[in-house]
Amino acid sequence: MSDSPSKPAPSANEGGGAPIDPRALAASLGVAKLEDVDPRRAAELAAMLSEVVANFDQLVWGTYRAVAPTSTIKRQQNLKQVVGRFAAGDAGVSARQVKDELDRLRQVGAALIASLNQAGRQFAQKQATTLAPSQIESSVKLSGKSVMTGLEAQCWRKYVELAGTGDVDSVERDLLSAMGAHAEALARGAGVK
Fold first, then answer.
1. Angle at the Cα of 94 (from 88 to 100), degrees rounded to 5?
2. C-alpha 180 chain-centroid distance
3. 75-112: b (≥16 Cβ within 10 Å) or e
């Protein structure tokens, strides 16, 4: 540590940013008033949150690319770099740009999480419909196959045929495809482009 006085914290308006509402900041930190915040711990917290967000950014966009590879919704910028440039006072990065990137990350992340339930349900319904005894029986009757083999045996063969097409890779592909379709629809509904 040096004996020189520490540099005062920048004012809310330095760098052309919008003024920080002390009440909103205190509320977001869960404290009664901003004066209750220890600046050193707040900086430590900012570093921890920045690391979590950077890791989440990588995870969300990597996962989204895997489940929706043909989607036109793409990662705009590396969030860690944008946040770093903003924090360093780069005039080319505004608070609005950072907020927009964070909102985009939140929306796509939320869409991925929400799609898990819907994709699982859609996949299960498709499987249940495809392998339903009544569906198999109807399919066998419509095919007009041999009358020499009983209906029950024909239904069993049809079931084996349908169930046999579900190797691990194709099941995974179908599930990820359903998840990607739902995630993209949810993200587009949230205004992500």
1. 120
2. 10
3. bebebeebbebbeeeeeebeeebbeebeebbebbbebb
How far is CA 107 from its chain centroid?
A: 7
**SS3 of the chain: helix, strand, coil, percent, to 5:** 70, 0, 30
Q: Quote the tokens at residue 183.
A: 């995630």
pTM for the model stands at 0.67
Rounded Cα distance, 37 and 26, in Å: 8
Are 65 and 184 spatial neighbours (Cβ–Cβ below 8 Å)?
no
| Residue type (1 letter), 158 | K
Say which residues have a Cβ less than 8 Å from residue 193's Cβ, sequence separation at least 6. Answer: 72, 73
Using the predicted structure, report yes or no on whether residue 17 has a pLDDT greater than 70.
Answer: no
pLDDT tens digits, 84-137: 999 999 999 999 999 999 999 999 999 999 888 787 788 788 878 888 888 888
Q: Among 63, 143, 147, which Cα is nearest to 108's? A: 63
Tokens of 174: 């179908």
What is the CB neighbour count within 10 angstroms for residue 59? 12
**DSSP label at residue 11:** P
CA distance 107 to 192: 7
